[in-house]
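Repro:
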Amino acid sequence: MSKKVLILSSSPRKDGNSETLAAAFAKGVQAAGNHVETVYLREKQVGFCKGCLACLKLGHCVIQDDAVEIAAKMHDANVLVFATPVYYYCVSGQLKTMLDRANPLFDTDYAFTKAYLLATAA
């Protein structure tokens, strides 16, 4: 059975190490007969979560930017893959911001059952 795989690439650098790793992962996913989509967070406008928790009542964030569409893609994917460089012993700020904005998924019937972390560090 083919799966929908969503890769969130969070490096601010195009063609950096974590993006290269994500591309290799995507190639393997496609070779196995699955559908893969890669979202490059550096190309998106994602604002910081305001902590208002309105998303838990509304089912979506009140901030209208690219995070709303990305969270919807996360909801529908069977597998989530987070590709990130390691900055100061943590995931990139871009990924952390997107994960905060994915809070509307918390109380939903999302499709994903697996999540992978592809991290690169110097």
